[in-house]
Amino acid sequence: MVFQSLAVSTGNNFLYAASQRRNESFAAVTRPPHLIKSYPQLSTGQKVCYNTTMPKRTYQPKKLKRARTHGFRERMKRFDGRKVLKRRRQKQRHKLAL
Question: pTM of the predicted model, to two decimals?
Answer without folding.
Answer: 0.41
